[in-house]
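Tip: read the tokens left to right.
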């Protein structure tokens, strides 16, 4: 098969414009991606395809023969490969990935969503039913099922050696694909591709919220939620590290004292020895009733474990429960004794002030809160570690001179 790639002529641009309008009608949340992909004519290709550089290859014969209706549906299909990062997801499967089989799985997943949304596709488009697979699955699940020696049914496009959807779908790069540095149709940068995907994901979320505006396939909603989700952070490790560093910093503060003679011997001079103070820790717990007990228990367990590992005795640990006022602050002997009770507002400044006034004076103050509270305007004497429980946005309100850790809600 010989494929000749060139720029679109004026007639082909008009046909593409009509197909894009149909595609936007089908999937308005993909509009940004549909106009970001860079179209080129691919004579002899026999279909549409995409590469990793977001180039969209259009066979002029198919573009004219399918008409705006079918061509628009295929545009949505091809751009779906790019938006859902099928090439990168294929790479994540490792060197043993069967890229052609992955391309088939990706086609099945996209077509499943498009048919559910009423998008017309050419005859022979692969679907889960053709392979005895359940609808509503994800690409990786379909790939695993196909790898169990499931053969394409007779009559599907995949059995005739037909051209796939290109390297943009995670398939092997074809010989007719343009090089990344091509000046006529330069490849889209990875950074811009990432930005485009996030913009599309936000559009999917907003469109899905408008229930009267149409139906967003479940697969697209699932993809958007995954794309916009905050990155998973091992908060237990981060919180433990923050408390450990604060304790180590306080333990490293030392000065000379004459309570014990120094090892350095100078005739007729008594030298002082370095004195390393014992470290005291205060834990301030928000009991305003706006946090969940399971998350609080988990955070307390991490703090307690680090303090015990640091060799700090219970007599040098102060645990305070606080909601909005100093009058609501009470001292507890063990962290296990703390239980959340509904309170009024939340003001951790009162709890921090009470902790600093305690005896012995704390070297490290750990605050466990939902984050919606005023904070001290100036640094306190102790090292301050803040664990925000449940809300990512609340981390933006903590003072910059404190160490802040997010503890996500379960």
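Filled-in amino acids:
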């Amino acid at each position: 098969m010989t494929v000749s790639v060139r720029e679109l002529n004026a007639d082909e641009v008009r046909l593409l414009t009509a197909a894009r309008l149909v595609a936007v009608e089908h999937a308005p949340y993909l509009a940004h991606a549909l106009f970001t992909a860079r179209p080129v004519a691919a004579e002899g290709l026999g279909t549409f395809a995409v590469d990793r550089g977001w180039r969209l290859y259009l066979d002029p014969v198919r573009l004219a023969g399918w008409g705006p209706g079918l061509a628009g549906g295929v545009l949505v299909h091809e751009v779906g490969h790019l938006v859902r990062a099928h090439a990168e997801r294929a790479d994540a499967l490792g060197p043993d990935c069967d890229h052609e089989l992955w391309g088939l799985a990706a086609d099945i997943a996209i077509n499943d969503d498009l048919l559910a949304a009423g998008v017309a596709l050419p005859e022979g488009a692969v679907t889960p039913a053709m392979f005895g697979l359940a609808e509503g699955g994800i690409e990786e699940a379909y790939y695993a099922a196909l790898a169990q020696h499931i053969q394409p049914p007779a009559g599907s496009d995949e059995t005739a050696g037909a051209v796939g959807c290109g390297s943009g779908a995670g398939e092997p790069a074809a010989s007719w694909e343009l090089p990344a540095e091509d000046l006529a149709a330069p490849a889209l940068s990875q950074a811009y591709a990432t930005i485009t995907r996030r913009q599309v994901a936000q559009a999917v979320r907003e469109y899905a919220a408008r229930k009267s505006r149409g139906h967003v396939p479940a697969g697209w909603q699932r993809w958007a939620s995954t794309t916009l989700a905050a990155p998973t952070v091992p908060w237990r490790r981060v919180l433990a590290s923050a408390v450990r560093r604060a304790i180590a910093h306080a333990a490293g503060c030392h000065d000379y004292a004459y309570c014990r003679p120094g090892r350095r011997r100078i005739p007729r001079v008594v030298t002082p020895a370095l004195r390393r103070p014992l470290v005291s820790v205060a834990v301030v717990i928000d009991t305003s009733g706006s946090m969940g007990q399971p998350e609080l228990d988990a955070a307390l367990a991490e703090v307690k474990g680090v303090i015990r590992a640091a060799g700090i005795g219970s007599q040098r640990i102060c645990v305070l429960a606080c909601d909005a006022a100093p009058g609501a602050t009470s001292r507890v002997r063990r962290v296990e004794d703390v239980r959340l009770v509904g309170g009024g507002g939340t003001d951790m400044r009162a709890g921090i002030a009470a902790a600093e006034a305690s005896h012995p004076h704390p070297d490290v103050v750990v605050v466990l809160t939902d984050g919606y509270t005023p904070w001290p305007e100036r640094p306190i004497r102790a090292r301050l570690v803040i664990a925000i429980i449940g809300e990512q946005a609340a981390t933006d309100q903590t003072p910059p001179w404190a160490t802040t850790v997010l503890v996500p809600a379960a």
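The first strand starts at residue 4 and ends at 6. Residues 318 and 358 are 8 Å apart (CA to CA).
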